[in-house]
Amino acid sequence: MAKKKRRQSVTNKIMSQVIETQNVKTPHDLSRKNYIRNTKRFIKFCREQYDCKDFESCRDHIQDYSDYLQEQGYTPSTIHSYIAAVCSTYSVPMSEISKPIRHIGEFTRGRKNKINHTNQDFNNPQYKRLIDFQKAAGLRRAELKSLCGKSLTLDESGYYCLKVVGKGRKLQYQRLSDEDLAVVKPYFEGKEPDEPIFTEADFNNDLNLHLLRAKSAQEYYEVQLNRILNEPGYEEQLKQEIIKRWNKFNIDKRTGKPKHLNPNNLEGWYIARGTTRQSAIKNGRPIKVNRLALLATSIFRLSHYRLNVAYENYIIVKAEP
Q1: DSSP line for 98-139
Q2: pLDDT tens digits for the chain (321 residues)?
Q3: Is the dihedral of CA 187, 188, 190, 192 positive or negative?
Q4: Which ranges constitute the DSSP H helices of the chain?
Q5: What pTM was computed for the model?
Q6: Strand, helix or coil at 172?
Q7: What is each CA distance from 109 to 170, 173, 313, 317, in whole angstroms?
Q8: How far is it, in rounded angstroms, from Cα 217 to Cα 206?
Q9: 209 to 109, 111, 114, 236, 302: CA distances (angstroms)
Q10: Quick check: 159 and 203 in contact, CB under 8 A?
Q11: How far apart, in whole angstroms, are the C-alpha atoms of residue 144 and residue 307?
């Protein structure tokens, strides 16, 4: 007797369409997985609260979902992430959905703990090799995993850097200071071009690599600031190097030309205000930083090309060793 085919649940049917939609819309694998996972939460909400039976009927409850998340006490940042996934799936502009405003001082992901003694992995000698490298390099976990013998190279200005495919599949050249290079270079000695620098076992841990990345960015900023203040001619040299990198990699997709570089970002001081200032004071971090050194950190160290992102997500993070 032939075995009966199991009937697919309503939720799974809807999720099949969600997955199909995101496979078309979101080419980056990690973003796609996150959007699918977050949209699944929304679909379950619609099934439980409104007994929705198909993909389209859930569309009418995006605002209801946002209101529900607020009632449940989710942070503005989390709500924004959850709603962004749903809006992407249903092609609904985020501006049409009422949601709480995110403030940098309320961000908690990857920042809840200092990097000393937060978990036993930081004290495990098995991971010392990875930790030492990350303190010098400041990469994301996925970028560390992708490193191979040919990843250590020279950038457009002749500096040693780590060539990686970063967030959003963007090619980036993570510049190394002389001190960083002394730590990083031995990892590449004797490696074949496509030979991995780390193994899967190196990442079988709960290390907060974001905080190590933040600490690395902070130290890079201090190196740049010291050279600007004390090394004759370095300020103008750094400006030209920033312009050269900007014009090569910060390209407008519509015109094919470099995006506008605000000359004000190359001069003066960046001063924190509002909740960002409060967070900096709370963490014992500077509320006033040199714009040129900050932009160099953003571009050469983090590949973000934005002062506020570098300052708010890295410079003011409390990341003591």
Answers
A1: --PPP-GGG--TTTSS-SSSSSGGGG-GGGHHHHHHHHHH--
A2: 444 444 568 889 999 998 888 887 666 666 788 889 999 999 999 999 889 999 999 999 999 899 888 888 888 888 988 999 999 999 988 888 888 876 555 555 555 545 444 456 778 888 999 999 999 999 998 899 999 999 999 999 999 999 998 776 778 999 999 999 999 999 999 999 999 999 999 998 888 888 899 999 999 999 999 999 999 999 999 999 999 999 998 888 788 899 889 999 999 999 999 888 998 999 899 999 999 999 999 999 998 888 988 999 899 988 765
A3: positive
A4: 10-25, 29-50, 55-58, 62-71, 76-90, 128-137, 141-146, 178-184, 209-230, 234-249, 274-282, 291-296, 307-310
A5: 0.67
A6: strand
A7: 23, 25, 10, 11
A8: 21
A9: 12, 10, 11, 33, 14
A10: no
A11: 24
Query: Is the CB of residue 319 less than 8 Å from the CB of residue 294?
Result: no
- Could you say which DSSP state residue 97 is in? S
Residue in 60, 102, 104, 64 with CA at minimum distance from that of residue 81: 102
Residues in the chain: 321
Q: Which amino acid is at 49?
A: Q
